[in-house]
Amino acid sequence: MRYLAQQRNFMSDSTSPILTADGTPLKTKLAKTTRRLRFKALLLTLPLVFFIIITFVLPIGQMLYRSVHNPTGILVTPNFAEAIQEWDGEGLPDDRIVELFVKDLAVAKKNREIGKTVGNLATRINYEIPGSRSLFTSTGRKAKNITEGPYMDALIKINKKWDNPAIWLSLQRASKEYTASFYLAALDRKYDEKGEVVMADELYQIYIPILMKTLWLSAVITLICFLLAYPVSYLLSTLPMKTSNLLMILVLLPFWTSLLVRTTAWIAMLQTEGVINDFLVFLGVIGNDGRIQMIYNMTGTIVAMVHILLPFMILPLYSVMKTIPPTYMRAARSMGASGTYAFTKVYFPQTIPGIAAGTLLVFILAIGYYITPALVGGNDGLLISNLIANHIKSTLNWSLGAALGTILLVVVLIFYWVYNKLVGVDNLKFG
Amino acid sequence: MKLKTLTASILAVGLFGAATANAGDITVVSWGGAYTKSQVEAYHKPWVAETGNTIKSEDYNGGIAEIKAQVEAKNVSWDIVDVELSDAVRACDEGLLETIDHAKLPAGADGTPATEDFIEGTLYECAVANIVWSTIFAYDKSKIKENGPTTMADFFDLKKFPGKRGLRKGAKVNLEFALMADGVEAKDVYDVMATPEGIDRAFKKLDTIKGDVVWWEAGAQPPQLLADGEVTMTTAYNGRIFNAVAGEKKPFEIVWDGQIWDLDLWVIPKGAKNKDLAMEFLKFSTGTKPLAAQASWISYGPARKSSGPLVGKFATDDSIDMGPQMPTNPKNLANAVQSNFEFWADNADQLTERFNAWLAKS
């Protein structure tokens, strides 16, 4: 740098480009060096990029793909799937299309290849028209006995349910490679008998209300975490090293205990015959019949989840607060500001990056939690993640689970975007 | 130097391969807790002692999601799994399980061929039943000393028996209980449930106790809820309550009225790494003696008729006779319903959604 400065002093009013020691122009040499440094930096990050692609982008991409990919109809009844697309949706399909259906069904019953069995198609149609699963499996067993037309009549003889256009419309939809039905179901909508998109029956509307409830509950938990964590972090950052280290260990201690152990500990504490209620009865504050219901309701969920997520708020706040020099506050006080004024105008704005990091972390974690609410939440313990887990585990409707997961992802990204507009991602600091 | 390390590594791999070639090893998956313990005592230990193979025991919480994930990924680590009937039928229909040849199952100890020895409706294309279990309800005798509940209607009667109730979280079993409490006869329950009005009726009955229900998900929770005094009565798997009574001397009483019995079966996922060995284990564990032996550890009925007479006393307490504890004991079958797997295979998804929506509306 000194050399450049000298050069500049020498040639202050010269128009020829500055040259480096080996005669190349400084500009090109600089550009070349910068490129080389950037390339080295890129190479250093490549392993991490591959790691993220393999463990994050690919699996999530595959899940997202599942939410629209609908290969069952085409795999189980390939000839029928092609032919049914020509049907106009009025009345019942032609007999030659039904013949292909019956023949494909007989072939599928013989093979037992995964993804191509009658059971797969039965399950798929059952998602849209409950009760059709046994219809398909029983018809599948008898399909090979139908050797000649009219095929529609033969099917109806096996079971009257085949005389319903809704089933054939559903089969037509299931025979397309990509479908929006799972997203419709995730948004509490469905196709009616005519194939139009309508809201699902009121008795079955669940996903949107639960999604709203999850977002609201996560916001409440984030707020409570913030109110509790701020003073604790402030204390930790202003105490002398020895004491603050000791207190920090107390904050981190819960991390070393299993999540389920912590949750069941809360059950033991909060239940009607639990520690807290027994203690209050012993003190005489409440009667034996007036025990407080603190668990298997919203209170229990909030208490347990705040307990589990508190360290995630304390740590970012602590790291940021540690970097704030105490001189600023002193300077503000010395210039006549009252304690509150100095705090709100000088100290608090400097902690905003930490607050941003902490709230984002806690909110995103809270949205995904479902074990704790399931155990302590009772009626109120059903959150969107429970539903997604239910679809992955029990109903095996992985496509609907994927659709719900995508919607959750999009909602969180929208939140993040709004957050970014308000706070600014560059203002995020973890310490 | 290079040749040395090369030879050393080849030797190491060879030895490792040889070491694992002789001992067979299968992964047996079941539900955990007292139930898995009964299987370890009655099936695992005798089989290991007899054949010299090893068993790795794993727990899971039901459903065929893990089996589906493993089979689709063509990386099946579970060799044999204990599943509920509706799961077994569904998984079989979707091509996720190996078929089982019933002719290969051993005959009963009294010589009856397997196909006649197994109780009706316990042998399926891809599954062989091992036990009959039941969902019942239980209460604490020390809290309700006399005139305790005797019928399913009593369970739903908050005036006569105030206090909270425990129910399994989900539509299955609860809808049947609600209908029976509402006066439907055991033999008509599924006919009523086949109609939309029947389902509405069941939910309306559940509404009457909704505010006082504690929902449980794992089999071990109901005895704990009773012990904690959190609920006055709770539905539960009969074997778990029995173990709390017999093993931990808890004063619980089972009410058999309205019991809903079901089967548990062994299945082998398609492409299991040790499927031949798993099949040997299946044949052994569903033999007459092992099934009768498991009945002495937990009160689940054996699926073979020839095992019935061999059921004796509770393994750790000679004073308890296991016979009366079985769901299949004639005294307990007075007002019993067999869980209809066809109905649930068809309607579980939709009814679970409706149940969740109902649960969320407070």
Summarize the structure.
Chain A is mostly helical and 431 residues long. Chain A has helices spanning 2-10, 26-66, 72-76, 78-84, 95-110, 118-128, 132-142, 151-158, 165-174, 181-186, 207-238, 241-252, 259-270, 275-283, 298-322, 327-334, 339-368, 371-376, 384-393, 398-423, and strands at 189-191, 197-199. In chain A, helix 2 runs antiparallel to helix 20, helix 11 (207-238) packs across helix 17 and helix 19 (384-393) runs antiparallel to helix 20 (398-423).
How would you characterize the overall build of this protein?
The complex is a heterodimer of chains A (431) and B (362). By secondary structure, chain A is mainly α. Chain A has two domains: 72-179, no CATH class; 207-427, MetI-like fold (Orthogonal Bundle). Chain A is built from 20 helices and two strands. Chain A has helices at residues 2-10, 26-66, 72-76, 78-84, 95-110, 118-128, 132-142, 151-158, 165-174, 181-186, 207-238, 241-252, 259-270, 275-283, 298-322, 327-334, 339-368, 371-376, 384-393, 398-423, and strands at 189-191, 197-199. Chain A has a two-stranded antiparallel ribbon with strand order 1-2. The longest helix of chain A has 41 residues, at 26-66. The model of chain A has no long low-confidence stretch (mean pLDDT 87). Chain B is of the alpha/beta class and 362 residues long. Chain B has two domains: 2-132 and 264-325, Periplasmic binding protein-like II (D-Maltodextrin-Binding Protein, domain 2), CATH 3.40.190; 134-261 and 329-360, D-Maltodextrin-Binding Protein, domain 2. Chain B is 41% helix and 20% strand. Chain B has 14 helices and twelve strands. In chain B, strands 1, 2, 3, 4, 5, 6, 7, 8, 9 and 12 form a ten-stranded mixed β-sheet that branches. Chain B is globular and about 80 Å long. The model of chain B is unreliable at 17-21 (pLDDT under 50). The chains are: A mainly alpha (431), B alpha/beta (362). The interface between A and B is large, with 46 and 41 residues.
